[in-house]
Write a structure and sequence with these properties.
three-stranded antiparallel beta sheet, AB_hydrolase_fold, 3 domains, about 25% strand, OsmC/Ohrsf, alpha/beta, OsmC/Ohr_fam, 11 helices, about 30% helix, Putative redox protein
Amino acid sequence: MPRIKAVFENSQGESLTGLLEMPSGTIKSYALFAHCFTCSKDNPAAARIAFALADRGIAVLRFDFTGLGTSKGDFSDTNFSSNVQDLLAAAQYLEQHYATPELLIGHSLGGAAILAAAQDLSSVKAVITIGAPATASHVKHLFANSYRKLQDQQSVQVKLGGRSLNIRRQFIDDLEKYNSVAHIGALRKALLIFHAPLDDTVSIDEAARIFTAAKHPKSFVSLDQADHMLSNPQDSQYVAEVLSAWVSRYLKTNPASVGQEEAARPPIEQGMVIVRECDKKFTREILTQHHRLISDEPIALGGSDLGLNPYELLLAALGSCTSMTLRMYANHKQIDVQDIQVELQHSRIHAEDCADCEKQKTQIELLTRNIRLTGNLSDQQRARLLEIANKCPVHKTLQNKIQINTNLAD
């Protein structure tokens, strides 16, 4: 599955980095993943869930909050409010470059963050929490000993999750703003809650608070025997499987969803090709009556490199037609051709003398085709096969004068 490095700015102009796991096939939806407190985008559970969802057609962006992982900024200057703003910046990045996220997924404090951010993201249709507290103020107990020191000091060093971090008084004071579950009751989005009964970091009572505060549709899934970090790969795999099945109910009716489901496939006549957008960059879905493929541009040109670029598709048409024509002729004439390989390249050259050009020294398109034939062939047979290659239907089409009629559909 393709992975794309994402770089975008937070509200303070600092550079945040993330990873976008893209499906190899149809993109059903885009999701935004918020990792646990002080974790990074490389957290094993977050990575495994993102991989599994991408395998099921859901593109997932996970990123490092300000001051964590490879993102810029000072962690001591951050707080829960800035985390929420980072989430909104990540959502804006998806909207500008791909499509608006329809799913928000949050683990631990990241779950509390997505519950807070969801009200500002109208495109979101479903919210999923994993081992999350109902409110951000739940984590205040982690700083109980440090809080007294902050009465006299600007900052203190705390050890969380095996890491030493500096926090300031403003961090703890900011948590007081998030001591209510009222925003959960006003969510107006489908909600799925994952929580482990044995979670000794965030009590399952927090899941009960979220579930009670939320309006329907809401669902709860117990993660039996799992720990808070989902350290067992089977637990994160289970979360991804249940999540993708559950969320399909809330995505399939979305007419603007990128990478439409097969059920939304338009009627296509024999010989017709339909090309439609998969994102707001260059990824395109190509549909025929019975087949589907993806075209794109390389990452260096601003694309996601999920498929052949347009000129590669052109060369592929010529190459495949050449190979088919040669095989058909060889079989018909019973010529011992064991294998056919066609290599093609496209370039532009200056034409020093071109009778059909309006002016001299203009550029013309050059398609170079090299054919490798394997088999017990005489020189005469090879020469004849070369003649046949130049008679393939696509070759003739490209050499004919082509008229293209373009209309705007109603």
